[in-house]
User: Fold this.
Amino acid sequence: MAGAESCVRSPGWVQRWRARPGVRFALVVLALVISSAVFAPFLASSRPYVLVAVDRGAYETSLAELEPLAASWNTRLIEAAAARQALREDEPATIHAVFIAQQAVARELRALELRIATVRRFASAEREVQVPLDALELRARGWTEKVHEGKLDDLGPAAELARDAARLRETHRPRGAQGDGVALREQRTYPLLADLERVDWFAAFAWLGVLVLALLGAPARRVLAWLAASLLFAWICDIAFRAPSGFATREVKQGLASGALEASSAWFPPIAFGRDETRLAEAARPPTWLEASRAERPGSAARLDALPGEPAADSRWRHLLGTDSLGRDVLARLLWGGRTSLTAGALAALGILTLGTLLGALAGYARGPLDALVRALIAVLQSFPPFFLVVTAVAIGSERASLSRVSPLGWVVGVLVVVGWTGVARLVRAEALRVRELDYVVAARALGYSVPRLLFRHVLPNVLAPALASASFVALSALLAESSVSFLGFGVQAPVPSWGALMQEARGLSLAWLVVAPGCLIFATCIALSWLGDAARDALDPREET
Amino acid sequence: MASKLGLGVLRAAGTLLGLVAVTFLLLRLAPGDPALLRFSSSEDAVSAAAIEALARFRAEHLLDRSLLVQFAHYLGPFDLGPTGHAWFGGSGAHPWHGLLAGDLGHEYLRPSVSIAHELGARLSVTVPLALGSALLVFAVGIPLGIAQALRRGGLFDGWTRAISLALYSAPVFWLALLAQETLGPAGLDWLPILGLRSRGAGAGSSADIAAHAVLPLLCMSCGGIAFLSRQVRSAVLETLRSEFVRAARARGLPESAVILRHVVRNSLAPATTLAGQVLPWLVGGSLLVETVFELPGMGKYAFDSLQRREYDAVAACVLVSGVLTLAGLWFSDFLQARFDPRVRDGWR
Assistant:
């Protein structure tokens, strides 16, 4: 009978938890904070979503490089021939030299082909423009094949290629003011989207879907199905928006400013500053809507040039949260920093809950030496101030971690999990000690079920409630610990931002706006989390009614 | 009773040993070995003499022996090195070494500084700070929790709970930085924000030190106050529902007697348990607070040592913080045993 009660308890308390006052609001706050972090790459970037432009710089450079490349390829060929004549045919040294030469020639030819492709991409589609390019490319490709087959002697007059390339440079000059030369055509690219990682796409799709499904009140199975689908979407997007080769999308704003890029349209994101985009002329500027930001530098508007796509230098909207000591936009870094901090908090909470629940349930169910071991571990770990242990382990170990190519964030999460699992384990162990004596577990044991089956089907589902109820407190303390560690300067390393690291930059400079904004975000997240945790604790304990 | 006490002592000794082991393993997390760290300045001019010195250093500090031997050496009280105790094949020049001999070693970069000595000076800042904020936490947290529970659902309860929830969720260092900005010279200029004493006239007087201690104390305490008042509030609410309170009221006892003698006394048991939990919080928080306020305490020492890679000093700090925590836990156990007859007489 007691078992039956225990079984129906778990959906019940989740319902009660959802119905408590303020829980919905806290969930909305949390959703907003997470959304800002998930969509940070879409909101704050120095690259436009869509760019319709001619990469004049790339076109001219490629055109200019055609001849030297062709010529250098020729000299490589001569070197190889010389090496072959100097040594005997079948000596290992000869074979090696020929191999090296072959590789070098293939590389030069590949570079040549890339330059031709760039020129061809931007040159107008007219027949008399494209045909010489086609001819050159065909010849280069033919030679590449021959080189791969090892027929180095059989290549014919290579100097011809250089002559053709030199002629191209004359005939294919971009059209200037006089109206001569070749007309260039624009290409449509997606620099921002092309630069996203597959993880970014996945996070965005998955989070969007979870939000929508949560609003609709969908069952967990549908949420999982959506997560799988977003993996597919991420893969498709990753392929679809990849930048065409030969288009320098790295520094779009600088290109537009210098004239290397000629754009007919560029659609920039709302915050047109990159995560690590430094601008020393604008270092330590207060939020631009403050009078202080204006009054302080009356002449600065003239000196400071806004790049294309950015708000004007004296605009109120330029840096809503000011800039840091290197002139980076704080709002952009704040959005990006949320990715670090929230990821650390969420992953650490997940790890702590998993490890704590498993160890606690095992110890409580199995008793005996295993229990003694777990209890001893808990006793030892809990006799350190957890934060002290975390800071020192992160600081000491992160060097070794970086040597073995563990990411700093991963190391922080690992330390948080190893230090922090004890609280959850204690809760779950106490619950497991109670549950193992309940009738239905005793009955299942009497039926001779295997230990894993007993553990995973009968014990674990019924000891999960306290662990789940403490989940948001666990996430809260993990988030706070990560921020504190980063604040001390030991967590993730610059230029990767995190909320705590942003505040560290403000230390000793008294840049108040760098302290206030990240702190407020941590604060809002933590308040929402502890509100949710409080509500969960109350919901679990039916006697407690407010 | 004697066997119970013996068991307790044994368990405590085991926990302490585990504490030392964790600290030792933490030290071994550092990449490379301390010898290279010590001699890293001579790396570009690798001479035979430097290699010789490196090897000698390694042998002296047992870095070429197994981890277990190193641990025994670290723990003490015998020096297992070549000049160590005669029992372990040493020459007997320096027979004692390690924690049990009370020797925490010397800093690498400043070999004249004894870590134990330095730590003692630092603790004279940290311990008063931690004890002071513990006092503050209890003096404010317990009455606050009781008052909230007695006026439950009212305006006072609502507001103070909201504030304590906010304090519980705010990062300590953020509060400290905000306090520095608003109350320090950059803002209202009410209180000094850096160091333990000011320069110039009146420096070092007790009023001066007290003024310097106000902000650190407040910053360290507010999280604890929020935590403790929440726990006390729910404990008092729990007690208010119990049968014996109803019985006391039914007997016609005055309300003040019911509250003071029955409710509060019974609700303080969890508070004494929490006394042990608040201490690690405070010691951990000292790392942040002392760093922000530039107080020369143990937390700041740990921070500086981490930055200078003085890992022996770091380990000493971690160890001492652990011992302090354990002392707090034992003290709360003692309090509970002293004041709760159920625990004292073995009912619980």
The mean pLDDT of chain A is 82. The CA atoms of residues 102 and 147 of chain A lie 6 Å apart. The beta strands of chain A are 50-55, 187-189, 261-267. Chain A touches chain B through 50 residues (CB under 8 Å).
